[in-house]
Amino acid sequence: MDRVAGSPSVAVVGGGASGTLAAVHLLRRARALAMPLEVVLIDQYGRHALGQAYSTTDPHHLLNACVSKMSAIEGDPGHLLRWARRDGLDIDGPDYLPRQVYGRYLREVLSAAEQRPFRVVRRVTGTVSALTGTAGALTGTAGALTGTASALTGTAGAPTGTAGARTGDRGVRVQLSDGGRIEADAAVLALGNRPPAAWPHIVDAANPRYVADPWARDALARICDGAPVLVLGTGLTMVDVAVTVTRAHPKAVVYALSRHALLPRTHPHPAPPAVPVPIPDGPLGVAALLRAVRLAVRDNAGDWHGVVDGLRPQAQQLWARLTPEEQRRFLGGAARYWEVHRHRIPPVTAARIADLRATGRLRVLRGRMLRATGVPEGLCARVEVDGAVRELEVGWLVNATGPGSDIAGDPFLASLIAGGTVRPDRLRLGLDAGSGGAVLDAAGRSDGRVFTLGPMLRGSLYETTAIPEIRAQAAALAPRLIEAITVRPGRSHPEPGSPEHDEPPLTARPVRQARSA
Prior knowledge:
alpha/beta; FAD/NAD(P)-binding domain; 7-stranded mixed β-sheet; 5-stranded parallel β-sheet; FAD/NAD-bd_sf; L-asp_N-monooxygenase_NS-form; HpyO/CreE_NAD-binding
């Protein structure tokens, strides 16, 4: 698969929210520069702009953040609300859209960012198996591009290296598992969250009644037959599974098992204002951080919601202040408590979960699974709950323990690590990257042609999986990518208000009642 002749090209590996936002902001930047550009958006399952999060077909799976916070466009917080109203939805900023609707929004935003024939998106369905330089390895240092940005969301500096210019042999080759290949000037690894890690206590992991990844295609549809379901994990994925399974069958019962039995907290309505949280200067440890948070909650009359919202803008800087040892300490203890308070669910979803628990259709268990074996009608799970061992016979077992934590479990990333093209971060949660998301090779160098964003930066940023953070990263990455592929000389910046500058209008549709919360 050769690139479109004459246009600079960027290959985006991963077609979910991270890849889509990267493509959108890159195209918008190219449009502002009147620059031709081809973006090749590669998605393994053909779910371009939807990815794992927004490919659900259950209308009761809602966004976990309100409309006013979920704009796809950095600097335009009202973009989603305007789109929803033009789309005929009776919705307000504090409401929560179905995730499938948000997926449609991302697809339309991606299409609107195109301006054929000069700026186009080529959507490719395939599995990427390798990433190389067209003239050799991507680990060389000659002519490397570097910037002066201090963080991914900072302002990128000018490129340095061999005259800062793109020469004919400085491309990137993306190899597909079916033998196809894509030539590009730069690449973005927007791989999103990994599937849940393999559960070690499943005797027969190939058992068709064991759902290793609840977000695989049609996975949830399989388990809606009314048989009892055991879900490993009590986080956001468990909530989605419980909502779908219990609505699909009036007698279905869901057991949810985790070590702490902590459920996601509820978004308050109306939302209180964010509360500034003073953090002491100097070396920072987890104990000092928790102490500062507790004091802030106390001073806020015991209300933690505003305190957590006040911490969120500081989260990446606070994470960077922790030593690797302190980061590991946080991951091993406090992280789960942060997650259930930080990643909340809409009030309507929380009410549904509360009703399921009150009627006995959702049973939350604190403990761990010891062993699961197949039986004629499903599986028999041997679990330890509150210190006592018991057996549960269920029709289905679902692994909802959250994204896998070691990127080396991904064959593509493992091959890049083995070849020295990339290296994992020090916690092995994602890729090691320099300023502006430039991926670092085994020697700690950036070739200036391969970048990453979103969950792949979790080890260095931690808070990097939600739309607001990814949106900011995508906006900051766009000029870095333009630098990497070299802005052609002689191009002028169009004035605001010109057709080249303005956003294509969104088509209005008849109003329909579709309030979700």
